[in-house]
Specification:
The chain is an alpha/beta fold. The chain is 25% helix and 28% strand. It contains six helices and 13 strands. A nine-stranded mixed sheet has the order 3-4-2-1-5-6-7-13-8, with helices on both faces.
Length: 256
């Protein structure tokens, strides 16, 4: 069997613990290349860098292995990783392991998921994987580590449709504590009280983007419901955002 070439990236930065854990999880399956932002880029979405030069720097991770950091976004990391570092020969992209959930509408903000989206644009099988810990919890990577390895094995033999990715969310627990794996739909997660106004020592206002999750009914087949049930959530996502159900109605609008 041909050795796989796997790109690992993230949005938590090149020094993130989850990045090194993901690399170690995938190393038994092939040759792993690491390209990640030089600093945390959480919430960067699918931004790409157009108005300044991108640079790649060699770094050594805590296990002594070679990796690359860049001043770009997570999406830039996939572009540079696949085309420059890997010379266009990439079999799989894994983004994570993110410290914090990427559920529901979070995917529109997430640099972790957007890196996998960039892989899907290149038509490379791509996965975003996150541990659903809160800000005041220590992340437990055991379940995510084991499932990342298992999923990469499965993806080696089962092809995703073109330009499709998998968004994986894992409970903050050990693999032995996981209640199962659920194939899910993207749920909804909406934040309230999102802007907190403060005053600096000179009396000038400034703002923090914050917020808490709204209390909403959760569809039982959603990613949010799976995590609440202690299950690993696997959500297929494609890049076509067309609201298909609205097409026929729009045809009847007086738009001409």
């Amino acid at each position: 069997m041909t050795t796989m070439r796997i790109l690992v990236t993230n949005d938590d930065g090149i020094l993130a613990e989850g990045l090194l854990i993901l690399k170690r999880a995938l190393e038994p399956l092939g040759e792993v290349f690491v390209v990640a932002p030089e600093r945390p880029r959480s919430g960067s979405g699918h931004a790409i860098t157009l108005h300044k030069p991108l640079r790649l720097h060699t770094v050594h991770l805590n296990d002594g292995s070679l990796a690359y950091s860049t001043n770009g976004t997570p999406s830039d990391c996939v572009t540079l990783g696949t085309t420059v570092v890997m010379n266009g020969r990439c079999d799989m992209v894994f983004s994570g392991i993110n410290e914090g959930a990427n559920l529901g509408w979070d995917v529109t903000y997430s640099g972790t998921v957007s890196a996998a989206m960039e892989g899907a644009i290149f038509n490379i099988p791509s996965v975003a994987i996150s541990v659903c810990c809160s800000e005041d919890e220590e992340p437990e990577y055991d379940a995510a580590l084991h499932f990342a390895h298992k999923l990469a094995e499965v993806l080696r033999d089962h092809k995703l449709p073109p330009h499709t990715l998998l968004n994986v969310n894992v409970p903050n627990c050990t693999m032995a504590q996981v209640k199962g794996v659920a194939v899910t739909r993207q749920g909804t997660r909406q934040y309230v009280d999102r802007v907190e106004a403060r005053v600096d020592p000179w009396g000038r206002k400034y703002y923090w983007l914050t917020g808490s999750l709204a209390n909403e009914d959760v569809p039982p087949d959603s990613d949010v419901a799976a995590i609440r049930a202690g299950k690993i959530s696997v959500t297929p996502i494609h890049l076509d955002l067309t609201a298909e159900a609205l097409l026929d109605e729009l045809m009847r609008w007086p738009l001409q």
